[in-house]
Automatic annotation (TrEMBL):
The gene is mtnA. Catalyzes the interconversion of methylthioribose-1-phosphate (MTR-1-P) into methylthioribulose-1-phosphate (MTRu-1-P). Its EC number is 5.3.1.23. This is Methylthioribose-1-phosphate isomerase. PANTHER family: METHYLTHIORIBOSE-1-PHOSPHATE ISOMERASE. It comes from Azoarcus taiwanensis.
């Protein structure tokens, strides 16, 4: 499938980056121009850009932006450090920064700025191709289920947003869905809300715009749908996959994996090989971001007049915890869909690049 993003999530504009501001979705579609290293770091930290592949590519743009007037060793090191501290869990951030470092550190300062832009844009093109390959491999799984169901829709459950909004292409977990829809394979997607940031609303918006049948549900409703036999397959993205196949994704993913395992429903992770951290032996070593209680204690949306606003859900003084991710053990994962194919979690090490 030759997928073209309806709206670019990240693009170059001279010596600046233009991003699709995800904090405004799905109620408003707007872009934001980032002209400084600090602006790029804030956009990543404040979740104007979300999704592991997109975070990595945006960070690469941030390096290029930082080197516009000063491409010396100190400035390069500063840019890598500032961007590297923005989000701890998504390994694509650090993968992209390491790729930029490898590309730039051996070059003379006067050659670095142009080289940085070329490498950052190459990362974007690579991700688009990767998403397409993930879609191809995942489509085969959906085709198999469709055949067994005799033409009835394949009922796919997902969690968080792992579509085109989170990448530079068709997405990761949603790429097979888009492939199936384009190929005439009937699909229906169960979209969980993904509290507290409600990234499920981004998935709902994407699917609605694409005409893919879907239903939005509360996070806690997922288990009963799986138990009732209303889910054929669960596919989610990942922010970091350990060498043994343990996978970190948006908090709530682990609960879906438990429900799927208890009801013999296949559970797949869809992620590029750049999300696999071969230096991380297992899930216990994956850093889990804590975003603080504010996101849990309030909710943002539109009021009755259509104006954006934030409503506090709990009284002052209520204690809350807000881990942004959880880890699904490899034993609960049926397979991992990458651009190289689908494999059991424990076999990822066989695909380890020589340079990793």
């Amino acid at each position: 499938m030759n997928f073209v993003q309806p709206i670019p999530t990240l693009q170059r504009d001279g010596n600046a980056a233009v991003i699709l501001d995800q904090t405004l979705l799905p109620h408003r579609v707007a872009t934001c121009r980032l002209e400084t290293l600090e602006a790029v770091a804030a956009a990543i930290r404040d979740m104007q850009v979300r999704g592991a592949p997109l975070i990595g590519a945006t960070a690469a743009f941030g390096v290029a932006i930082a080197l516009r007037t000063d491409a010396g060793d100190a400035r390069l090191a500063e840019a890598l450090e500032v961007l590297g501290k923005t989000r701890p869990t998504a390994v694509n951030l650090h993968w992209a920064l390491a790729r930029m470092r490898t590309c730039l550190q051996a070059l003379p300062a006067e050659a670095r700025h142009q080289a940085a832009w070329l490498e950052a844009e190459a990362i974007c093109r690579d991700d688009a191709r990767t998403c397409a390959a993930i879609g191809d491999h995942g489509l085969a799984l959906l085709h198999e289920i469709a055949t067994r169901r005799g033409g009835k829709p394949v009922r796919v459950m997902t969690h968080c947003n792992a579509g085109w909004v989170a990448t530079l292409g068709a997405g990761t977990a949603l790429a097979p869905v888009y492939q199936a829809h384009a190929a005439g394979v009937p699909v229906h997607v169960w979209v969980s809300e993904t509290r507290p940031r409600n990234q499920g609303l981004l998935t709902e918006w994407e699917l609605r715009e694409a005409g893919v049948p879907h239903t939005y549900l509360t996070d806690n409703a997922a288990g009963i749908l799986v138990a009732r036999g209303e889910v054929d397959i669960v596919i989610t993205g990942a922010d970091r996959v350990a060498a043994n196949g343990d996978s970190a994704n948006k908090v709530g993913t682990y609960l879906k994996a438990l429900a799927a395992n208890d009801n013999q429903v296949p559970f797949y992770i869809a992620a590029p090989m750049s999300t696999v951290d071969f230096d991380c032996p297992g899930g216990e070593a994956i850093p889990i971001e804590d975003r603080g209680p504010a996101e849990v204690l309030s909710v943002s949306g539109l009021d009755a007049t259509g104006q954006p606003g934030t409503i506090r859900l709990a009284p002052d003084g209520v204690a809350a915890v807000n881990p942004a991710f959880d880890v699904t053990p490899a034993r609960l994962i049926t397979g991992i869909i990458t651009e190289l194919g689908v494999c059991a979690p424990g076999r990822l090490i066989g695909w380890k690049p020589r340079s990793a």
